[in-house]
């Protein structure tokens, strides 16, 4: 339990008519190295939760404990802490600013204090992680396509090699192909570096497929947390939060109505499901 | 964003909120002029009382008015200091080896400070109680007589409403970009002035790009919905002067008469 939210509340615009309580008494723990998905509808507090974790907002009350750092309402000097956390915001391509792709990706490592050779190395590495061809290095990021710009922006965060990687709706606005590519990049990156990934999404399919732990949020509260199986088994919880089970689960459930021996609803990956079906076909059941 | 912006509309319901924007604009504009005619304790007290009555009628927390004063506190302090040091007439109030303060200096400093505060109270009253849409509708209506001299009243009002409409959007965008660059290790808080200004380049460039993108999108969206300027355009909500508006202007007339009678 290296990351724990202890009774955290967050209120926007305190003391004005616009006061809005975004988070209420949040109690949740993440294991180091886990892939965590935070799911919930728009306005459920997911983005606020991850901004607290990123050290970009300070809790109104409560304590956020990350390893040996304690973040509370009067915390100061979070600069050092932020260097360990990478955040990919929604539509991250809107934050590109440098003249060349390489310079933009190198902005993070440069701020971390890496020397020129190290920056160079990390930029090339990050570009290959996100599948950008090396000859795009000296192009202006603004000449690229939307999908490529998104990759540049994500590479800029990956190049910092964060201990905690936060992604806020990283697949929003991408076509299906682009979504699949990005998810597989994230999965491989997570497995390779073993960093903690916190992935905010309202897409159940993404959460089910990638996550080891899911945090279900609604109305600024954590409704449930646990393995995907535990979350998606509890339909009432999902419905209260205005969410649904993943497409795969829906499909298996409808197929199960016609089968004598049901298929496990714990399968979330398409390839696993295909294997299972082939296996059954061979057995002739 | 944890702070209410200066001059932001506060959407509650009050007598002042319901007034016609045109009468509010005229009232505040005339009040701002009237402030410069006040010249003794009685007249300033009168204006302050009117201002405080306005604050009470707006049903907006006094705290928000005080917060908007933060904007001018430095201006007040600076001019006060300036007058205390440089105005040298009247009897001596305080004498120290480095500085002599004269009565006239104290008087001038007090007058200027009160004027600033009054200006801010009346301007805030208008901005807090009038939604941007009402404000521009009102301005368009007030400026429309100038069309005779080819003044583009509608375009002017439209430009203003678009600018006002996008302030919160740009503010939210700035906030988001600052956070994103902070998360990439950008440091906005340390170093000398030059370094700090330079640190904002990664914020300003994306902000500029997104503003241009927004402007273009908005122009396309407006054209797609058939916008072609103010000619022949009708309004869904037609402004109307009610009894309360006339009452407000009568109030102004009384205050103005009283002020001219009380001033030296």
- Biggest β-sheet of chain B: count, sense, barrel? 2 strands, antiparallel
Helix run count of chain A: 11
**What class would the helix/strand composition of chain A place it in?**
alpha/beta
Biggest sheet of chain A, in brief? 6 strands, mixed
Distance between the termini of chain A: 43 Å
Instruction: Estimate the helix proportion of chain A, in percent.
Output: 25-40%
What characteristic shape of chain A results from the CA principal axes?
globular
Cα shape of chain B: flat
Order of helices and strands of chain A: EEEHEEHEHHHEHEHEEHHHH
Percent range for β-strand residues of chain A: 15-25%
Number of strands of chain A: 10
Mean pLDDT of chain B: 86
- The helix fraction of chain B, in percent, is 55-70%
Pfam families (chain B): CbiQ
Subcellular location (chain B): Cell membrane
GO molecular function, one term (chain B): transmembrane transporter activity
Subunit structure (chain B): Forms a stable energy-coupling factor (ECF) transporter complex composed of 2 membrane-embedded substrate-binding proteins (S component), 2 ATP-binding proteins (A component) and 2 transmembrane proteins (T component).
What does this entry look like structurally?
The complex is a heterodimer of chains A (285) and B (264). Chain A is built from eleven helices and ten strands. By secondary structure, chain A is an alpha/beta fold. Chain A has a domain at 246-285. In chain A, the strands form two sheets. In chain A, strands 6-7-8-3-9-10 form a six-stranded mixed beta sheet, sandwiched between helices. Chain B is mainly alpha-helical. Chain B has a two-stranded antiparallel sheet. In chain B, helix 2 runs parallel beside helix 11, helix 3 packs parallel to helix 6 (103-129) and helix 3 packs antiparallel against helix 11. The termini of chain B are far apart. Chains A and B meet through strand 6 and helix 3 of A and helix 8 and helix 10 of B.
């Amino acid at each position: 339990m290296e990351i724990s939210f202890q009774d955290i509340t967050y209120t926007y615009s305190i003391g004005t008519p616009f006061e809005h309580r975004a988070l209420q008494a949040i109690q949740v723990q993440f294991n180091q190295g886990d892939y965590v998905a935070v799911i919930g509808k728009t306005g459920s507090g997911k983005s606020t939760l991850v901004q607290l974790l990123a050290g970009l907002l300070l809790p109104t009350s409560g304590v956020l404990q990350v390893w040996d750092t304690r973040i509370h309402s009067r915390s100061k000097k979070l600069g050092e802490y932020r260097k360990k956390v990478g955040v990919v915001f929604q539509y991250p391509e809107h934050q590109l600013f440098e003249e060349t792709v390489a310079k933009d990706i190198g902005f993070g490592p440069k701020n971390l204090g890496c020397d020129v050779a190290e920056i160079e190395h990390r930029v090339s590495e990050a570009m290959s992680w996100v599948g950008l061809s090396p000859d795009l290095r000296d192009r202006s990021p603004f000449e690229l396509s939307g999908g490529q710009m998104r990759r540049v922006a994500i590479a800029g965060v990956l190049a910092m090699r964060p201990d905690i990687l936060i992604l806020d709706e990283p697949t929003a606005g991408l076509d299906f192909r682009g979504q699949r590519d990005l998810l597989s990049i994230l999965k491989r990156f997570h497995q390779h570096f073993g960093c903690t990934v916190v992935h905010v999404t309202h897409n159940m399919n993404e959460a089910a497929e990638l996550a080891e732990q899911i945090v279900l949020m609604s109305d600024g509260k954590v409704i449930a947390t646990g393995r995907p199986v535990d979350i998606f088994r509890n339909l009432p919880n999902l419905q209260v939060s205005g969410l649904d089970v993943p497409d795969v689960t829906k499909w298996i459930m409808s197929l199960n109505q016609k089968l004598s021996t049901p298929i496990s609803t714990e399968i979330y990956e398409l390839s696993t499901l295909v294997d299972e079906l082939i296996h059954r076909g061979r057995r002739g059941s | 964003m944890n702070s209410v912006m200066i001059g932001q509309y506060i959407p509650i319901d009050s007598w002042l909120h319901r007034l016609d924007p045109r009468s509010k604009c005229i009232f505040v504009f005339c009040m701002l002029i009237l402030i410069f005619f006040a010249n003794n304790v009685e007249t300033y007290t009168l204006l302050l009382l009117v201002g405080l009555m306005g604050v009470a009628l707006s049903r907006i927390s006094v705290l928000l008015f005080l917060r908007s004063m933060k904007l001018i506190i430095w201006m007040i302090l600076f001019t006060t200091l300036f007058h205390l040091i440089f105005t040298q007439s009247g009897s001596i109030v305080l004498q120290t080896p480095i500085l002599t303060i004269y009565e006239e200096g104290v008087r001038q400093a007090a007058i200027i400070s009160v004027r600033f505060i009054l200006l801010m109270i009346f301007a805030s009253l208008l901005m807090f109680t009038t939604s941007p849409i009402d404000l521009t509708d009102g301005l368009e209506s007030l400026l429309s007589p100038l069309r005779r001299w080819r003044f583009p009243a509608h375009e002017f009002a439209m430009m203003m409403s678009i600018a006002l409409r996008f302030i919160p959007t740009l503010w939210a965008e700035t906030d988001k970009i600052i956070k994103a660059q902070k998360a990439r290790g950008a440091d906005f808080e340390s170093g000398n002035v030059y370094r700090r200004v330079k640190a904002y380049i990664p914020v300003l460039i994306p902000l500029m790009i997104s503003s241009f993108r927004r402007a273009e999108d908005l122009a396309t969206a407006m054209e797609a919905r058939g916008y072609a300027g103010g000619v022949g355009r009708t309004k869904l909500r037609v402004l109307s002067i009610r009894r309360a508006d006339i009452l407000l202007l009568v109030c102004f007339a009384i205050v103005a008469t009283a002020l001219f009678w009380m001033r030296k």
